[in-house]
Design a protein that fits this description.
Blueprint (H helix, E strand, L loop, with lengths): L1 H33 L3 E5 L2 H4 L22 H6 L4 E7 L7 H24 L4 E3 L3 H9 L3 E8 L8 H9 L2 E5 L25 H13 L2 E3 L5 H10 L5 E5 L13 H10 L2 E4 L3 H4 L6 H18 L8 H17 L7 H15 L4 E3 L19 H9 L4 H24 L1
Parallel strand pairs: 1-2, 2-4, 3-4, 4-5, 5-6, 7-8, 8-9
Helix pairs in contact: 1-14, 6-7, 8-9, 11-12, 13-14
């Protein structure tokens, strides 16, 4: 009898485990649908500029031409709100360069205006957290606007106000190269980190006055500390990770996270592979990618300046060939949630969120596009996070910072 009972237990164990997992997933999906979900960074506006690509139609997951999200897939994935980035790659720091950057940013905003006009039943412009909640209740996607790279501002203070009036509600001060606002985390042509410039200080002060969030993703360490010392409002790192788990200079160190907590700000987890888990050292691979980036920068002035689709397609094939030649180990949702765990242990549940960087390199082996974002919630529930904690991670913390920035500007 004992032997028989033993076999029954062994055979039943997988069934019990499967039932428990099914209950966990059911709970996670329920909560995912109930909380306000906000992604604070994606580069989907680039897709709006593609001929024939329609954000109002669902595209298949995994195809290069599909991108990572569209309005139907956002609904299917349970994403209520997203910050669409007006991204302009860093170019010449000249009058002509500033004019080109300003015009490019305006063109992206024009494309978003056209999206709102074409699909008023599917989405709407959000300027405040209240707008996001209103649009969620209407069953629409709330689209916030962020500017990735302050380069389009040139040296003209009036342009800060211009882009604010057009809906921009955060400015990422720099991108992957130093600019006139501050130094970048990844541009070390000049080995000295010069931090925030005098013009950059004017920009930060004006953003505070207008109620626009200052975004410190991509900025150098010195720039980060100088921004947080200057800003009278909480700041956001719209798409960054923990440097303690992945040593990329794009990520925030524990010291930076502690200062961010004191500021009242928030770090939004970027699900880009190398920021989550750096691949093993490979000098040949690193040189090959460096040569590719140099070619793009020197020939076209950056990826964002390539207007010819045929040229972009050829470069994408070159990049795909590099990835096939130098494959990195897959990175999974569980690796990303390790970063959330680390940040929560260090600075608490009120200072972390999610900024995927979809359509800008973001995506994991088991979270390839917006329809698979639920896998993050499932992993959070699996690790014991409750509904209130998940609500903070999935948008509550970012919306709290945004509201505080607005309220401080009113004072």
């Amino acid at each position: 009898m004992k032997t028989k009972t033993f076999f029954l237990v062994v055979l039943a164990a997988p069934l019990l485990a499967g039932a428990a997992d099914a209950r966990l997933i059911k709970k996670a999906l329920l909560w995912h649908g109930q909380v306000l979900t906000v992604d604070t960074h994606c580069d989907t506006p680039f897709m709006l500029l593609e001929d024939g690509w329609d954000i109002g139609k669902a595209h298949p997951t995994g195809l290069t031409d599909s991108g990572c999200q569209d309005l139907p897939r956002m609904k299917a994935g349970g994403l209520d709100a997203s910050f669409f980035a007006v991204f302009v790659s860093q170019g010449a720091r000249t009058d002509d360069g500033y004019a080109r950057a300003r015009d490019k940013a305006a063109a992206v905003l024009d494309a978003m205006d056209a999206m709102f006009a074409r699909y008023p039943d599917l989405c709407g412009l959000a300027l405040t957290p209240a707008d996001a909640r209103r649009l969620e209740k209407q069953g629409k996607r709330a689209i916030f606007i962020g500017m990735e790279n302050g380069y389009p501002l040139g040296h003209d203070p009036s342009l800060i106000d211009y882009f604010y009036k057009r809906g921009v509600r955060y400015v990422t001060l720099a991108h992957t190269a130093d600019n006139d606002i501050c130094d970048s985390s990844t541009d070390r042509k000049d080995p000295e980190d010069r931090g925030l410039s005098d013009w950059g200080r004017r920009v930060v002060r004006r953003l505070n006055e207008l109620g626009v969030m200052v975004d410190v993703s991509h900025v150098s360490d010195r720039s980060f500390f100088e921004v947080l010392a200057l800003s009278r409002a909480p700041v956001m790192a719209s798409h960054s990770c923990a440097r303690a788990l992945s040593a990329s200079p794009r990520n925030l160190s524990d010291e930076m996270l502690l200062v961010l907590k004191k500021n009242g700000g928030v770090i939004q987890l970027c699900i880009l592979n190398d920021y989550i888990k750096q691949p093993p050292a490979d000098a040949e691979r690193d040189q090959a990618y460096a040569d590719f980036r140099k070619k793009v920068d020197e020939t076209y002035g950056g990826w964002g300046n390539i207007k010819d689709k045929a040229k972009r397609d050829r470069l994408e094939k070159e990049h795909d060939a590099l990835e096939e030649r130098y494959p990195s180990p897959p990175v999974f949702v569980k690796d990303a949630v390790d970063h959330i765990d680390h940040i929560v242990r260090l600075v608490g549940i009120d200072h972390v969120g999610i900024g995927t960087d979809f359509d800008g390199g973001g995506g994991l082996a088991d979270c390839r596009d917006v329809t698979e974002l639920k896998n993050i919630t499932i992993e959070l529930v699996r690790r014991g996070y409750g509904k209130k904690e998940i609500a903070k991670i999935w948008g509550g913390n970012a919306m709290r910072v945004m509201q505080q920035v607005i309220d401080l500007a009113k004072k």
